[in-house]
Amino acid sequence: MEKNARIYVAGHRGMVGSALVRRLQQAGYGNIVVRTRAELDLLNQSATAAFLQREKPDFIFMAAAKVGGIHANNTLRADFIYENLMVEANLIHGAWQAGVKQLCFLGSSCIYPRDCPQPIREDYLLTGPLEPTNEPYAIAKIAGIKLCESYNRQHGARYFSVMPTNLYGPNDNYDLASSHAMPALIRKAHEAKQRGDKELVVWGSGKPRREFLYVDDLADACVFLMEQGAADGIYNVGCGEDVTIRELAETVMSVVGFTGRIAFDASKPDGTPRKLLDVSRLRDIGWQARIPLREGIAQAYRDYLARHGG
Questions:
Q1: In which domain, by residue range, is 114 found?
Q2: Is residue 268 part of a domain?
Q3: What is the signed CA dihedral for 234, 237, 238, 240, rounded to 10 degrees?
Q4: What distance lies between CA 55 and its chain's CA centroid?
Q5: What's the pTM value of the predicted model, to 2 decimals?
Q6: Comparing C-alpha atoms, which of 288, 201, 286 is closest to residue 245?
Q7: pLDDT (0 to 100) of residue 38
Q8: Cβ distance 204 to 271 under 8 Å?
Q9: How many CB atoms lie within 10 A of CB 304?
Q10: Number of domains in the chain
């Protein structure tokens, strides 16, 4: 990828998009195109197509998406499937019309069947039923993967898909009504510490196993693939290791400095029992995650304090 390449990062204000912008700038790419939602509504097909025709980016990172945790996914099901389908259809079709050379579509590990063999390989896609709590979001993301594959096959495009595991880091969403497990735990532990609580309430049983990836590692993987000339297919991105939700909560509590006990709320859903990605495809071409979990949580907590105060 030439340093003067014109690169559009869709969703640059989100956690993933902002990490991509940071990584591109660090690597010396100076021609980065961004638009806020107020400047460009990606749900609007004609506006998206006109923008891409006008700007003519060489590369697109598709980090724009409606995302959330179990509660948001399970209650805003229509919003999650509609908005994600529309954004990806408008961007991928518009990219092809505008002659975009290469595109990186950001998916999610929830595309894989609920009861997948572990670790999860890319070819396990569509081999079983999805996790019901986030099925609409997963189906939208699967459609994005198939859009990329279909435009490659029919039109000779060079669009590839990246499936990250559970992400966390700077610019995360800490709204307890819509956040994922990691930011929710960081906020809950911090507030429990401030109040002097004796316990930290954690959703579910604490038994499910999850893999977590610091978002700057994901951004590094995406730029690595773009620079390697990736042109098709799916790439899992993770660290290759998982922990139980109990272990995660204990690590967060240790980093935050909350010394109370954990209380699990078993009335809340656990979601998928285990979700560990097989990252050998990406590792075999020379990339692996660098930031350990505890170090990443410490960096995320510093970001939380800087943005939301002590």
A1: 7-171+211-241+274-291
A2: no
A3: 50
A4: 26
A5: 0.94
A6: 201
A7: 97
A8: yes
A9: 19
A10: 1
| Angle, helices 77-97/45-55, rounded to nearest 10 degrees | 40
3-state SS track over the chain: CCCCCCEEEECCCCHHHHHHHHHHHHCCCCCEECCCCCCCCCCCHHHHHHHHHHHCCCEEEECCCCCCCHHHHHHCHHHHHHHHHHHHHHHHHHHHHCCCCEEEEECCHHHCCCCCCCCECHHHCCCCCCCHHHHHHHHHHHHHHHHHHHHHHHHCCCEEEEEECEEECCCCCCCCCCCCHHHHHHHHHHHHHHHCCCEEEEECCCCCEECEEEHHHHHHHHHHHHHHCCCCCEEEECCCCCEEHHHHHHHHHHHHCCCCEEEEECCCCCCCCEECECCHHHHHCCCCCCCCHHHHHHHHHHHHHHHHCC
Are 68 and 133 a contacting pair, CB within 8 Å?
no
Nearest to 3 by CA among 19, 24, 18: 24
Residue 64 lies in a domain: yes
CB-based contacts of 75, cutoff 8 Å, min separation 6: none
pLDDT in tens, 8-61: 999 999 999 999 999 999 999 999 999 999 999 999 999 999 999 999 999 999
> Among 284, 174, 173, 268, which residue's Cα sits nearest to residue 225?
284
Catalytic site positions: 137
Q: Is residue 227 part of a domain?
A: yes
Read off the amino acid at residue 148.
C
Can you give the pLDDT at residue 213?
A: 98
CATH number (domain holding residue 44): 3.40.50.720
Instruction: Give residue for tokens 């990252």.
Output: 279
The dihedral built from the CA positions of residue 84, 89, 94 and 100, taken in this order, carries a sign that is positive
Report CA torsion sign: 306, 308, 309, 310.
negative
